[in-house]
Amino acid sequence: MITSNMADNESVECITEHERILQEIESTDTACVGPTLRSVYDDQPNAHKRFMEKLEVRIRNHDREIEKMCNFHHQGFVDAITELLKVRADAEKLMGQVTDTNRRLQDAGREVTAQTEEVIRCRIQQRNMTTTVERLQLCIPVLEMYSKLKEQLESKRYYAALKTMEQLEKVYIPRVSRYRFCQIMAENLPKLREDIKDISMSDLKDFLESIRKHSDKIGETAMKQKQAEYRCLHIYTVLGDRETFENYYRKQRKKQARLVLQPQSNMQETVEGYRRYFNQIVGFFLVEDHVLHSTQGLLTRAFTDELWNMALSKITAVLRTHSSYCSDPDLVLQLKNLIVIFADTLQGYGYPVNRLFDLLFEIRDQYNETLLKKWALVFREIFELDNYSPIPVETEEEYKSVVSRFPFHDAEIEKQDFPKKLPMSQSVPQIYVQVKEFIYASLKFSESLHRSWTEIDDMLRKSTNLLLTRTLSGCLQHLTKKPHIGLTELVQIIINTTHLEQACKYLEDFITNITNVSPETVHTTRLYGLSTFKDARHAAEGEIYTKLNQKIDEFIQLADYDWGMPESDGQASGYLMDLINFLRSTFQVFTHLPGKVAQTACMSACKHLSTSLMQMVLDSELKQISMGAVQQFNLDVIQCELFASSEPVPGFQGDTLQLAFIDLRQLLDLFMVWDWSTYLADYGQPTSKYLRVNPSTALALLEKMKDTSKKNNIFSQFRKNDRDKQKLIETVVKQLRSLVNGMSQHS
Asked: What is the pTM (predicted TM-score) of this model?
């Protein structure tokens, strides 16, 4: 018994120890499990077998727990796998979408990249174009001066050509000397000088050769004349009557001088007539100079001076008269050149010629007048041929062609693709070019007058001012008054004058480049082009307002109201809708105008329309108006108000434009609502609802409606509820008459 108990105790202790060992194995790190297992073998014999049995039991327990746990989580695992499979399909789909999106993004990126490169290329082109235009603006004056030089050389005006060369070398070429063409030009100028020198030397050789060939005849003639003159003079001297000879000679020469100074009747028609006239006079006074210096006492300096002064007075009078009949500027210019040669020739023989150069200044004014008349015809022809629409440019070459003739720069337009349109019409660059041509033509007369460049600059500016303020201004004023010039043309004229006004500073620079006289000089005359184009623009604006009102009147005349209609048509009148459509399309054209002009035109049109409608309904010839007609009229006024509120022209504040119809609106509201009690009670108050309704206006309209009330077609809707409405009307009429009479007495 005791042995059995001891065995049981040992068995329990063994089991407890095995539990401890198992717990230690389960909780101990695998690397430290060795000592624990050793304790199993160090214990009682066969203890390890019992431990192994215990271990197997423990393993089976754990297997059952694992199986139980697996069974518990198995469905979730299956669901997770199922979801994972679905996710894989979605992932593959997403991968395909990502790949496709990436491909499309790459494609779009390539397009954007290409467009970006194109934009960069266009920006570079634009920058290059701007730079080119700026460089051309610097180069054009040089080219113009060189062209002028070539023209002077072709016309054999070598002295003027030398002056032009000097300006090119000192002023123009240094500004653009880095360009190859300027270097070639500068290298060519010395050669041109040598050519002029050679031509002059050739002319001198020809002259000397001519003298050599004809010297015998000249000498023979001179000796014969001299022999006859000495002989006659000698005979009279020997006879003691030298004084008679001298008096006779002088008297006859005076008579001959008068004959020589008498011009032909048609001398002003050709330059040859003037040339013969000057040749005769030069020949006469060369003989006198020869006699003065080759004889003793036959002529005196006092006599020749007296004879020349008499001739000079006659010459200036003849030239002043005949040149005034000349209408050809080219002929006047040729006359000027002949007078200069004539004066220089006689000045070389000691004759004073200042009065001739003073006369040239008078003829210069005459020359300018002929130029102004000629350019008036040029301007009118340009205006006649203009289509008054923006200039279309299809290519870069066409654009450059325009800006080379007219200084136009607009960054926004330059960015636009071709084809595009420039805001001004074709007449603008043509007018600008012709003004420059006029300056050139005016300059031709100033050459060889022995005047300083400051004086020439002043002459050019004054003549150009006359061209702008008188000729061009007159043509523009005449243009705006022409019957065929409509609203669209007037709008274009305003745009044109704006661009011409902006170009005036370039004309200033153009003259400065010719004369090399700084515009800051104290006595420099300024161009008056700004005032010219402003005046023309104001005239065009006035014509716009007038023609716009005339068109409104034409539409108003088409109105055909049935003033006795029992009720309205339910829609606005056709004539009025046509009028509003016309105004809307017209004001769309006004978008290119300065804001103030467009707003003024729009406000003027609305006021004129409102006044015309008011006059229509108050016309003394209109005797009766039904309520239906008032309702129809109200529908038309509503359309006018809707038009005003649609902002046909931007820039109006709030309901400013709608106020143009406020008088009509308050009058119609008064009659539509039949709110006489409010009107009469609040009359004269600044807060009155019908403040803009004049009693006389209300009375006139009410009288027209009262006359139709007896026909039982106006106030039937009131009489259904109130048979005494007619009395109320009579009462209102009396009160309105009282207000009108009170106003009359007060005034």
From this structure: 0.61
